[in-house]
Each structure stands twice: as C-alpha cells, then as structure tokens.
Amino acid sequence: MVSTRYFSGNSMKGGASAVETFASWLNSCEDIITLKKIHACTLTSGHGDNIYLGTKLLNSYAMFGTSTSLGDSRSVFSKIVNRNPSLWTCTIVGYFRSGHLDEVCDLYIRSKRHGVCGDSGIFTFSLKSCTALGMVKLGRTIHASALRTNFSVDKFVGSSLVGFYGRCGSIKDARQAFDEILHKDVVAYTTMITSYAQSCHLESEEAFDVVIRMHEERVSPNRVTLVSLMQAAARGEAYREGQIIHCYSLRRGITDEVLTTCLIDMYIRCNATKSAMSVFRRMEERSVVSWNAMISSLVDVGHPYEALRVFNLMKKEQDWIGDEITLANAIMACNDLKWTYVAKSIHAWIVIRHGMISVVDLVLTTALIATHSDSEMKMARALFDALTERDAICYNVLLSGYLRNGFIDEAIPLMERMVAVDKIPLNSGTLIVLLSAFAQLSDLTRGKCIHGYALRRGFDSTVEISNQILIMYAKCGHMGVSRQVFEKTMNVKDLVSWTSMISGYVHCGQPKEAIAVFWRMQRLKIKPDSVTFVSLLQAVSGCYLGTCSINQVNMIHGLIRRLELNRNVVLLNCLISTYSECGRLDIGKRVFDTMPERKLTSWNAMIAAYGIHGHLDDAIQLFDRMKRENVKPDGATFTSLLSGCSHSGRVENGRDIFLTMTSKYSIAPNEEHLACMVDLLARAGHVEEAYHLTSRFHLKKNVHVLTALMSACRVYGHTDLGKVIGKELIHLQPGKYGNYTLASNMCAFAGEWSKAADLRNVAADIGLAKQSGFSISNSTVL
C-alpha cells in the first residue's frame, strides 16, 4: 500500500534530510488522504512552520482543489505566512490554478495588509482573477499598486492589465496599459487585439492598426492572434481585412477547426455567404461544432432561411440531426421566419426522441418557449415549468411572451418568482425586456417604475439600458423626457442612442428635430448606419413638401454612397419611397433600376410609388416583369396594386387583380385588400357590389369601410342601402354621435324628415352631443 511505502521506519535513511524526504513524498503524492498523512508527519516532526515544505503543501492542496483541502491550505498558510513575495506568489498561483479565484483576491488584499511588496506573479494572477470575477474596483487598485512599484511595464502584468480593462469595456485604459509595456511579446499584442475585437465594431477596426505595429516590431502572430483578428473583422464587417488574414493563415499552414469556424463566421457577417460556404465545404472533417457555427452565424446576421438550408444539408449529408445546439438554432431560425409549424414539428420530434422535454438542453427549451410564446402561452409555461434548472434568459423569454400578449397580471408574479424562488436577480436583459414591452404597450406608469429601479440599482449607467429608457419615453409620446435622458444622464452615447433619438422624434411627429439630431451627429463625426438613414429619410419625407425636401434627400443619398451603404436593400427601398413621396418618381425609378440586388420588398416599394402617383399602367407592367423574373408576389404587392386601381378608378383592372390574387397565388384577402376593393367599387358607383363584398368576407364590423360605403350611397342615390348601413353603424358604435348624424342625413336625403328628426332625438336622449372644435395652439399638451 502507498501509505506503508511512505511511512516505513527506514524511509528517512540513506543520508537524506527529513525536509528533503517530505518534499519527495509530496512530489509523488496521488490522493488527498495520503497528503493529509504527510502533512500530519511534518507537524509531528516539528517541520510545520518550514517555508519550503509549507509551499509544497500549499501547491499539493491546491492541486486537489476540494472544499476540505481549501481549509487545510489556509491552515498551512497561516503557520508559514511572512513577507516573502515568492511565498505569496506560490500560494496565489496555486489557488488560481485550482479555480479558487475569490481566494486569490482575498490573498492579494491580505498581502497588502502584511506589507508584502508585490511581484509580477502576484499582480498577474490577481488581475486575472479580478477579470474573471468582474471585480473592477479591486482591479483598478491592483493597477495603482503596479504603477507605484513600476510593474505595469512588465509584459506579463501589462498583458493582464490590458485583458482586465478590455473585459470591463474600458478600451481606452486597455490601450494606455498596452502602450506602457516596454517589451511587448505576442501575448501582449494578442491581448490588445482581442480587447478591440470584443468591443463595439467601430473600435474593432483599431485591431488592424495593432497588428500592423506588431508586424513592424517583427513579432509573428500565433493562432490565438488570428482568431481574434477574425473576430474583429467579423464585428467590423471588414471583408478585405478578413481575406488578408485568411490568406496569411493559409501561408502559415494554420487551418485548425477553431480558426476555420471563425473564418466562416467572419465571411457570413461580411455578407459573403458564398465564401463562407466555400470554406465550409473544403473542410476535411466537418464536426457538429462546424455545422453549428455555420447555422448560428446565419441566424445571428438575419439569414434564417439560409440557416435552415444548411440545417437540411446537414441532415442529408451526415444522416443525423445534430445536437441540442443545432436544434435550438434551427428553431430560432423558424421563429425569425414565423414558421411556427416547422418549429412545432421539430418540437414533436424532440418529444418522440427524448420523451420528457425537461431532459433536453436549457438553450433548446428556451428556443421552444420562444416559439410557443407568440400564440400558445400555456404550452410555453408548461415547457418552462418542466425545466429543472432555469436561468435569466429563460425567464426573460417567457416574460417577454407574457408582456407581448398583454398578460401583465401573469408577468408580474413570474418576475417575483425569478427573484424570490430561483434567486436570479433582475439583470440588464430583464430590464430591457420590460422596458421594450411597456414601450410597445405605451404603458408609461410601469415604464417609469422600471426606470426608477434601474436608477436605484445603477443599471442606468449601461448604455443599452439608457437607450431602452429613452426609446420607452419616446414611444409613450414624451420626447422631452427622452431628450433629458439623452442630454443629462447618459455619460456614454453610442450609435443606437443617436438613432433612437432620431426615430423617437419621427414617431412623435417632430421631423425637424430628428433632422437636427442627425446633423449634430455629423458635426461630432459619428458614423451613421443603415438604420439611422432609414429613420432620417422618414423624417425628411414627413418634414417638407417640394424642392427643399428633394435637396435634403439628394444630400442624404450622397452620404449613403460615400459611406458605401448603397448595397443595403432596406435603405434603397426607403430611398425609392422617399423620392416618390417628394414628387420625384423618376429618381426613385433610377434607384430601383440600378439596385445590385432586388428583393420582394423592392418591387413592392416601386409598385406602391407608381400607385401613389396614379401610374397604374406602369405598376401593372412592373408586376408583369416580376412574374417574368419569377419573383412571387405577396399580400403587400396586391395591396399596392389595388390601391393604385382605386386611385385611378380602374374597376376592371381591380377585379382582375383581386381574382388573380385569390385564384392563382392563393393569397387570402385581408381587410386592407377588401377595403381597397370596396373603395374602388364605391367610387365607381358599384355600391351594391361593394356591399355584397363586405357581406361575403365578413367586413361589416369595419367602421371605416361602412362609412365610406354610406358616403357613396348618398352620392349615387342608393338611399335604401344607405339606411341599412346607417343602422349597422349605430349598432357597431351606439355611443358615437357622428353615426346618428350620418343615418339622419341619409333619411333626410330620402325625404323621410320625421325619421331623421327621430334619430337626432334618440342621440340627444342618450346624452350624446356634437363635440365642439378646438384649436391645438390654445390647448395644453401634457
């Protein structure tokens, strides 16, 4: 037995000292029981306070890393503690390697109390522990001590400082710490590049400046450096730089799975899906990790359809369906496409394969909860309750579903359960979900409560929460409060902050203020993105009519070209609509004709532009061109066509288009389609046909359609039908005075004066009265 070998009476013979013998035993110790016996021997032999043996014991206890060994380790350290930095370093390294990071931070604090002069190891591993634990205050204290002792210029300490500040989001402090390192090695450069890569995408561009400097200093990048550069290229959508890194990795022969996976992600985020697929297909072996990276990247960048194609390719080539992450990504892609039935079929497969859903991965179950939270909250709650472990993301998804469907009474107890039962504090994600939901519901009272909670807990210091707060106030119609949050309480503003202010002003009907915010951005040299320009174009189209508006749109169009955003389909669609609304249909058509890629929304935007200007023939020709190019129309296409027919009074064309929509494309008409048809028929005098259409498609509860029909009845003399519609309007809205007036006027038009008077008397008897007009300039806006 091992214990007999260690503790036999002849074990210390042969001239070896007791300390050396104990040290050799510790080097070959294999389990915690034996270690405790050796420790006991050192104590009984009087060597319990020997620093050399104590250090060996500390390392041995740290290697096992159990809760009992941690207590014994503290006991050993308390007996040999002194001001020798190497002892403290050895102990800190042991705790760090065993994963007891909180003990590392505690030891650092104790070392300062004992007056220990820190060395490179103490600073390095204490900073690494602060980074992992997110202890910003202590990390800054360690940095101050390193500065005083001139250890901040050490490459190991400096690299740890760069990593610490980079993880905490203080990229300027990270760069300053990097610049202070005297002799930079590949680790220092890689840490700085990684910090830039993990920051916002504007700062990720700085990573390439660092690698240029690295090349000038003749420091060769390693695999980790290349991975970080790939991440920086992906975040900054730097396609050219990504290609250069790809070529370099091929020349160096660095083509492992991790790097290739990052390469695929980079190409997808740079909108080069074909290049990503080419790299993916050339992989000698494609593991489930590679397939998952391909699918998840496509989901992340908003290409769910392509993600599902890769998912189907995986099933076909590999003859298997992947793991839980694969299924979760596939379900998320279905959720993005609103393909609920496909997501539910995957759910059914999981239930058949696994039985109880609770045995399936938490990420997968969360994706399924998101699927069902759009329409089947009971199923979503059943999935949630079946989980044995829950995290903040799972709670946030279910909470979002309750709030989105208006079940506020269910959401509040869920939030209380999250904090009280599962001991999960409300995090920034929860607050964003709540603020977003209350913004959509225009629930200012509850939105203010969440704002107050964020202030009390210090969440308002994060830019994401502050952005959501100003969006909430804007959607609730309080742009004054949004402006206060933006100007006075936000110390850091990102592009989302500025874009949110512009869209908020547009939402509240203040387009001139939105345009002023944009030009302020330009003065501060803040680079806008496609979302910013879309909101700006909406502001311009709502602000002016005529030449001044065209000048604004032309200027914005020039900026879009200069920033190389003229390949963004959504932005170009918005330009088409804006030019059309400003009276320049010719420029809108030029934008459409020169688009490098057209999606269905682009065709719809151009057809709608033709319809607004009454160019129905051009709209129909474009529709025919769509069919020739195999672009399948949707409901919005037919809405624009029918609206154009209504504005042009082309009844026959409208009938043909309506018939084509239902018979050839199997698109069920919605209320908007039917309202366009009713308006078209009523304007042309086909009042009875229009009324028959409302009866056939159960449109009699649409007040706007019935009101338009009643007006047409009066114009074309269909008094009997007008009186019937008048009764239906009164039945739908018995408390609205205007409906009694319309019905009374119809009776008067038919010469039935007594019935007209009776209707007005009925309105007066039930307390209805005509509302007085008022001037908005004299009213007080709260």
TrEMBL record:
<feature type="repeat" description="PPR">
    <location>
        <begin position="494"/>
        <end position="528"/>
    </location>
</feature>
<keyword id="KW-0677">Repeat</keyword>
<dbReference type="Pfam" id="PF13041">
    <property type="entry name" value="PPR_2"/>
</dbReference>
<feature type="repeat" description="PPR">
    <location>
        <begin position="185"/>
        <end position="221"/>
    </location>
</feature>
<feature type="repeat" description="PPR">
    <location>
        <begin position="391"/>
        <end position="425"/>
    </location>
</feature>
<dbReference type="InterPro" id="IPR011990">
    <property type="entry name" value="TPR-like_helical_dom_sf"/>
</dbReference>
<dbReference type="InterPro" id="IPR046960">
    <property type="entry name" value="PPR_At4g14850-like_plant"/>
</dbReference>
<dbReference type="InterPro" id="IPR002885">
    <property type="entry name" value="PPR_rpt"/>
</dbReference>
<dbReference type="GO" id="GO:0009451">
    <property type="term" value="P:RNA modification"/>
</dbReference>
<dbReference type="GO" id="GO:0003729">
    <property type="term" value="F:mRNA binding"/>
</dbReference>
<feature type="repeat" description="PPR">
    <location>
        <begin position="599"/>
        <end position="633"/>
    </location>
</feature>
<dbReference type="GO" id="GO:0003723">
    <property type="term" value="F:RNA binding"/>
</dbReference>
<dbReference type="Pfam" id="PF01535">
    <property type="entry name" value="PPR"/>
</dbReference>
<dbReference type="Pfam" id="PF13812">
    <property type="entry name" value="PPR_3"/>
</dbReference>
<feature type="repeat" description="PPR">
    <location>
        <begin position="568"/>
        <end position="598"/>
    </location>
</feature>
<protein>
    <recommendedName>
        <fullName>Pentatricopeptide repeat-containing protein</fullName>
    </recommendedName>
</protein>
<feature type="repeat" description="PPR">
    <location>
        <begin position="634"/>
        <end position="664"/>
    </location>
</feature>
<feature type="repeat" description="PPR">
    <location>
        <begin position="287"/>
        <end position="317"/>
    </location>
</feature>
